[in-house]
């Protein structure tokens, strides 16, 4: 079950990042996609054959209709509540090599809450919960704990300091984040999550540099090589969410964490060869075809 994190991404393909200072800049056709992290994890898990529920707030607006249309028929049991604040949006600038910068709005007010009667029926049917770091999702932790369900979350580019992320970091069983926020401090941040929280594994994605895995049995983070993309890299939007869905697919199948991370790498690489956000998630057939292919070379060290 996925909680929170639906929205619409407006993808703008720019000639370079950062964008040159100019009053105007000609770009390729601008596209809109159902995006954001919860949508990506839900679609990725469903494409891999996992029974997937998804609860969130969504606006009664054209952007909300786009999200509903994308999720319809995907296998995701999407049950949104109407938010008077509208559907979350982001503008993602994408360079020719697939790198991106996301400008996302934070329109949800801090007093937004999801009524328990809306999410509890879905929680009672779940065997694992993935919480997006939307503010309202933090208030589900007590009910999740009462049901004895394991939790995962994605902190994205957390710097290890911002307070908003700490409850998610320290109350989740699996913690995903990217190396972008903490930089060379990422190893220390991963160790803090293990030390201060309840996580059995912390996974830091590093884009083309692969990923890093840390468990209580590891002295230092293990490097997970990047998988070879099945085609030219054109857009990294949604690659981190795809990684998460691939990892969860392996974890719920009972695989050890290293193998879960390898599946995550395969799903992340697959996402980078499709334009847009969550437009072509890896499915079980593609996973089987990609399994056993060689991994790309990458640095085998993680910043201390």
Automatic annotation (TrEMBL):
List each copy of the Carbohydrate kinase PfkB domain by range.
190-279
Q: Which GO terms describe its molecular function?
A: kinase activity
Q: Which SUPFAM superfamilies match?
A: Ribokinase-like
The answer to keyword Transferase applying to this record is yes
Superkingdom, natural source: Bacteria
InterPro entries, per database record: Carboh/pur_kinase_PfkB_CS (IPR002173), PfkB_dom (IPR011611), Ribokinase-like (IPR029056)
User: Which keywords has UniProt assigned to this entry?
Assistant: Kinase, Transferase
Whether Kinase counts among this entry's keywords is yes
This one is known as Carbohydrate kinase family protein
């Amino acid at each position: 079950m996925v909680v929170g994190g639906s929205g619409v991404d407006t993808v703008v393909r720019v000639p370079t990042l950062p964008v040159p200072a100019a009053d105007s800049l000609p770009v390729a056709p601008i596209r809109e996609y159902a995006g954001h992290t919860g949508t990506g994890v839900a679609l990725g898990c469903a494409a891999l054959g996992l029974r997937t529920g998804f609860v969130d707030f969504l606006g009664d607006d054209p952007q909300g209709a786009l999200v509903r249309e994308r999720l319809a028929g995907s296998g995701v049991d999407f049950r949104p509540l109407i938010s008077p604040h509208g559907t979350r949006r982001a503008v993602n600038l994408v360079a020719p090599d697939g790198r991106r910068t996301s400008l996302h709005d934070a329109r949800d007010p801090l007093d937004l809450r999801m009524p328990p009667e809306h999410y509890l029926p879905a929680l009672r049917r779940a065997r694992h919960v993935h919480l997006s770091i939307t503010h309202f999702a933090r208030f589900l932790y007590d009910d999740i704990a009462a049901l004895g369900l394991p939790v995962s979350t994605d902190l994205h580019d957390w710097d290890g300091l911002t307070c908003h992320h700490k409850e998610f970091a320290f109350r989740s069983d699996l913690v995903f984040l990217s190396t972008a926020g903490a930089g060379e401090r990422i190893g220390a941040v991963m160790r803090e999550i293990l030390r201060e929280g309840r996580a059995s594994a912390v996974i830091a994605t590093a884009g083309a540099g692969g990923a890093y895995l840390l468990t209580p049995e590891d002295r230092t983070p293990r490097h997970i090589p990047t998988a070879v993309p099945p085609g030219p890299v054109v857009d990294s939007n949604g690659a981190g969410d795809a990684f998460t869905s691939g990892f969860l697919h392996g974890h719920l199948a009972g695989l050890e964490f290293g193998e879960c991370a390898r599946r995550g790498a395969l799903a992340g690489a697959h996402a980078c060869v499709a334009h847009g956000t969550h437009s072509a998630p890896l499915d079980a057939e593609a996973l089987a075809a990609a399994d056993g292919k060689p991994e790309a070379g990458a640095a085998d060290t993680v910043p201390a």
